[in-house]
Amino acid sequence: MRLSKEFRDQFIQHEMRTHGRKNGFVTDGQEARLLKWLPLIGLPKDKTLAEADLKEGAPVVMEIGFGNGDFLVHLAKNHPDWMLIGVEIYLPGVAKAVARLEDAGEIERCRITQLPAQFVLTNQVAGEQLDGIFINHPDPWPKARHHKRRIIQKDFAELMVTRLKPGGFIKLASDKADLAEWMRDILDATPGLTNVAGVGGYIERDADRPETKFEQRGIKAGRISQFLHYVKD
PANTHER family, from UniProt (predicted)? Predict the structure, then answer.
């Protein structure tokens, strides 16, 4: 079924313009879990991470665009000491992620927002509050006239740096060669970041990294993913 109008009115933000899908199909059970958990772990626009009851002293790591939550669950299982912040505007994806996190017994260590990442980092995250940021297979917006919609832009890269602690990381993945190059070139030129692989380089795939849904699609289409790893100086 599609998300009910009442549910969409309550949880989908309409004030800020975003690109991409926001509504879609969910099961009755997924909608019920969203109704249960978002009031507890959600980050509405008037709430900051400082007010989100994060475990004191725990590393705080964000995934921007977590899709259906596969990678978020992987992070939760493999890093039991982390507090995880998930950012995703596609509410049916949020529904699937919440269900998977609850099934994995990891949901209470997560905070979820459906707001645009630019707003989240600007208004809900304090300076040097994050220990790391993951961005996996963001929308490539392949047409040249749409490149301005790509999430990695000069100003967004500079914003991420301000929200990372010294020594904090940004890890990215894409199976679209031109987008991987786009992200690499912008981040290589961003003050305060060091490319772990060296300027112009990509890292090897992390040994424990799972194949996300979008990566599997790329593999079937014959595309190879590229991986980037940056550290704040």
Answer: 3-DEOXY-D-MANNO-OCTULOSONIC-ACID TRANSFERASE/TRNA GUANINE-N 7 - -METHYLTRANSFERASE, PENTACOTRIPEPTIDE-REPEAT REGION OF PRORP DOMAIN-CONTAINING PROTEIN
What pLDDT was estimated at residue 23? 54
Handedness of CA 25, 219, 110, 208 (dihedral sign): positive
In this prediction, the residues of the chain whose per-residue pLDDT falls under 50 are 14
C-alpha to C-alpha distance for 210 and 216, rounded to whole angstroms: 10
Q: 173: alpha, beta or left, given left = phi > 0 and alpha = psi -120 to 50?
A: beta
Whether 139 is a known active-site residue: answer yes
Of 206, 228, 172, 217, which is closest to residue 78 (Cα–Cα)?
A: 206
Give the dihedral sign, CA 107/72/103/114: positive
Going by C-alpha positions, the residue among 96, 81, 67 that lies closest to residue 131 is 81
* 215 has binding-site annotation: yes
Catalytic residue among 28, 46, 81, 139: 139
Handedness of CA 37, 42, 46, 47 (dihedral sign): positive
CATH code of residue 51: 3.40.50.150
What pTM value is reported for the model? 0.91
214 annotated ligand binder: yes
- CA dist list (Å): 176 to 108, 118, 156: 34, 23, 20
How many domains are there within the chain? 1
What domain range includes position 140? 5-232
Give the burial class of 220: count Cβ atoms within 10 A of its Cβ; 0-12 exposed, 13-18 middle, 19 or more buried: exposed
Residue 205 confidence (pLDDT): 94
Query: What's at 109, amino acid-wise?
Result: R
